[in-house]
């Protein structure tokens, strides 16, 4: 068993977050950001964590309203504070290179956090201030746009989030969603944040069998990064692969880890 250190981080707005540090082979650290209705101790997340530990050290954080963290999920708006706190902890531990690896909602949050930390002036009034940019961002199965309802499963997700009955179902499964709607201005979309990452390498990974978000989402994220002046962005479209953590194959985890480390070495 690899040594694991557990701690409680405090986001800038006071939300307490359950976080864990896993000793791997040292060097860079991967900050793994789980998807909606998950947490850092999920079995599928832990498989990814153990695999990444062969390439560096690993930090997981339970997003607000998930797992052992306090607060309520805002489905991508305030969660950038959670990732910011995890990166800040990584820097305090002495890591010079931090790679965020987000899945689904976590992918959107990782891109938004990095973009807004790099270009705070481009945030909306609905976005909190973040100040700890990572060195590399890897986004797996993430949405590019808010309020997407183009697939049957995403229509169900919106019902769960937006209705009292749906939120009760989620609460029974361990996810606490804030009932309040977003401010009218709305937080910056992931696609806009991707365009702010001119100086941060971005890898976008998506499967052709993703039931949540079709390929227009990763294509839009990649295109926005290119148009924003990012000369180090790639899009990997994986044939027959499904959604997020559950779809990750060992070779893909290895390849994304190597991609991130190569950018850290530049």
Task: Describe the protein in words.
The protein has 266 residues and is of the alpha/beta class. It has one domain (4-148, 187-265): 3-Layer(aba) Sandwich (Rossmann fold). The chain is 34% helix and 18% strand. It contains eight helices and eight strands, in the order E-E-E-H-E-H-E-H-E-H-H-H-E-H-E-H. The protein has helices spanning 43-52, 79-92, 105-118, 152-162, 164-172, 190-194, 216-227, 250-265, and strands spanning 4-10, 16-22, 29-33, 57-61, 98-103, 136-140, 202-207, 233-238. It has an eight-stranded mixed beta sheet with strand order 1-2-4-3-5-6-7-8, with helices on both faces. Helix 3 (105-118) links the parallel strand 5 (98-103) and strand 6. Helix 2 (79-92) crosses helix 3 (105-118) and helix 4 crosses helix 5. The longest helix has 16 residues, at 250-265. The two termini are 32 Å apart. 51% of the residues are buried. The mean pLDDT is 96.
Which key features would you list for this structure?
Rossmann fold, 266 residues, 8 strands, alpha/beta, eight-stranded mixed sheet
List the helices and strands and how they pair.
Layout: E1 4-10, E2 16-22, E3 29-33, H1 43-52, E4 57-61, H2 79-92, E5 98-103, H3 105-118, E6 136-140, H4 152-162, H5 164-172, H6 190-194, E7 202-207, H7 216-227, E8 233-238, H8 250-265
Parallel strand pairs: 3-4, 3-5, 5-6, 6-7, 7-8
Antiparallel strand pairs: 1-2, 2-4
Helix pairs in contact: 2-3, 4-5
């Amino acid at each position: 068993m690899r040594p694991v250190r557990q701690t409680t981080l405090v986001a800038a707005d006071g939300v307490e977050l359950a976080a864990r540090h896993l000793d791997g082979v040292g060097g860079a650290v991967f900050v793994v950001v789980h998807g909606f209705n998950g947490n850092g101790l999920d079995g599928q997340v832990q498989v990814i964590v153990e695999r990444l530990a062969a390439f560096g050290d690993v930090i997981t954080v339970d997003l607000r309203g998930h797992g052992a963290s306090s607060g309520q999920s805002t489905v991508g708006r305030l969660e950038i504070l959670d990732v910011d706190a995890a990166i800040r902890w990584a820097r305090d531990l002495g890591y010079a290179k931090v790679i965020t690896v987000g899945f689904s909602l976590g992918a959107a949050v990782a891109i938004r956090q990095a973009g807004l930390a790099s270009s705070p002036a481009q945030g909306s009034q609905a976005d909190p201030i973040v100040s700890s940019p990572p060195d590399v961002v890897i986004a797996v199965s993430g949405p590019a746009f808010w309020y997407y309802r183009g697939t049957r499963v995403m229509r169900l997700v919106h019902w769960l989030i937006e209705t009292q009955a749906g939120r009760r179902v989620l609460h029974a499964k361990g996810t606490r969603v804030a009932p309040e709607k977003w401010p009218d201005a709305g937080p910056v979309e992931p696609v806009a944040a991707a365009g702010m990452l001119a100086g941060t390498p971005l890898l976008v990974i998506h499967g052709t069998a993703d039931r949540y978000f079709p390929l227009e989402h990763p294509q839009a994220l990649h295109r926005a990064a290119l148009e924003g002046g990012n000369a180090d962005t790639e899009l990997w479209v994986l044939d027959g692969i499904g959604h997020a953590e559950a779809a990750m194959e060992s070779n893909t985890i290895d390849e994304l880890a190597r991609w991130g480390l190569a950018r850290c070495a530049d």
